[in-house]
Design a protein that fits this description.
The chain has 145 residues and is mostly helical. It contains six helices and two strands; from the N terminus they run ααααβαβα. Helix 1 packs across helix 6.
Length: 145
């Protein structure tokens, strides 16, 4: 009997998690759409401001691409949703580039704090400017920043 109750509890919990996850994904999808539209404006032209000498010094010796890969929008939302970040959690993005994933973590979850680590000073500067632009546009609050 206890084994049967345990199985029933696990099934109920899995159903609850699925409903909860779907609800969170739906809410995140709306906010994600808002931010994605804003990102286009906030980060436009960032490649033009990247320091060529910095690339040659930091990234070329390692065979790195001068531009970086970003996580797809849906994958990023699902990753953050499944991480179930709360007020006691800290999100750290090593190799953060423009900081978009950290922005998403703060805007889409209840994470307590988010930090970015980036070797490139020009990318870090662009990340700061982009976050400021998002804030000025009203799409990223001071609390989120």
């Amino acid at each position: 009997i206890n084994r049967m109750r345990g199985l029933q509890c696990r099934r109920a919990l899995n159903q609850f998690r699925t409903v909860d996850l779907n609800a969170r994904l739906s809410t995140m999808e709306t906010r994600l759409g808002e931010l994605e539209d804003s990102f286009k404006h906030a980060f436009e032209g960032w490649r033009d401001t990247c320091d060529v000498h910095e690339y040659k010094q930091l990234f070329a010796p390692r065979g790195s691409n001068p531009y970086y890969g970003e996580l797809g929008r849906n994958f990023a939302a699902e990753l953050l949703c499944n991480a179930n970040l709360g007020p006691d959690d800290v999100f750290v993005d090593a190799g953060s580039g423009l900081g978009k994933l950290s922005i998403l973590a703060v805007a889409l979850t209840e994470v307590g704090a988010a930090y970015e680590l980036e070797l490139s000073k020009s990318r870090f500067r662009c990340a700061q400017e982009g976050a400021d632009t998002l804030r000025k546009m009203g799409n990223f609050t001071n609390e989120e920043r």
